[in-house]
Design brief:
Blueprint lengths: L1 E10 L3 H12 L3 E7 L4 E10 L5 E9 L5 H9 L2 E9 L2 H10 L10 E2 L5 E5 L9 E5 L10
Parallel strand pairs: 1-4, 5-8
Antiparallel strand pairs: 1-5, 2-3, 3-4, 6-7, 7-8
Bound molecules: (S)-Methylmalonyl-Coenzyme A.
């Protein structure tokens, strides 16, 4: 069951400048940052609020680490902006299977590693009314975050 908006992914050309915009304009601070080489992104997670399932919702700022990555290709075509939305679930495997059974293309056979040790998969935007959609099961909480 999808229980929250886990994050909204925002593609940007310059992560540090974009982080500074969100800090100066809205007061949002970086909760966590990392490089995900498999996905080809450098990312910063800005925690917006906790949620009643014990999780949280974030803005995820994404700078490509290479031009041929999903975000790099998307930026070259569209410029900066909202790249995807992500729904949180306790069971990414089960929810992805149920959604696949409805005829929506799930992009990975098995969930891959996402931000903060989460397990993630994506639904094809052409099957989701133009929205690249991610499903996320968060890793159990740990004592520290950071890069
Ligand atoms: C592409 N399209 C999109 C889109 N990306 N539509 C809406 N939102 C997007 N983000 C559209 C294109 O405009 C095009 O439509 C069609 O899909 C095919 O796009 P393409 O440019 O030819 O690119 P493909 O087909 O090579 O790849 C698209 C695909 C890919 C969605 C399969 O981007 C992908 O695998 N995405 C999942 C991985 C990902 O996005 N990783 C980055 C975030 P037209 O009409 O022109 O044919 S990593 C992340 O977020 C992690 C770290 C985390 O959350 O923890």
């Amino acid at each position: 069951m999808l229980t929250r908006i886990d994050h909204i992914g925002i593609a940007c050309f310059d992560l540090d400048r974009t982080v500074e915009f969100y800090r100066a304009t809205y007061g949002f601070e970086v909760f966590h940052s990392e490089v995900n080489e498999e996905q080809g992104v450098r990312e910063a997670m800005l925690r917006i609020n906790g949620t009643d399932d014990g999780g949280a919702s974030y803005l995820q700022l994404l700078e490509p680490t290479r031009e041929d990555s999903a975000v790099g290709k998307w930026l070259a075509k569209n410029g900066e902006g909202v790249h995807h939305i992500a729904f949180g679930t306790a069971d990414v495997d089960g929810d992805a299977a149920a959604i696949r059974d409805q005829g929506v293309r799930v992009l990975y056979d098995e969930p891959r590693t996402g931000s903060m040790g989460s397990r993630i998969t994506f639904l094809h935007p052409k099957d989701c009314h133009g929205v690249l959609t991610e499903l996320v099961t968060s890793a159990p909480p740990t004592a520290s975050h950071g890069d």
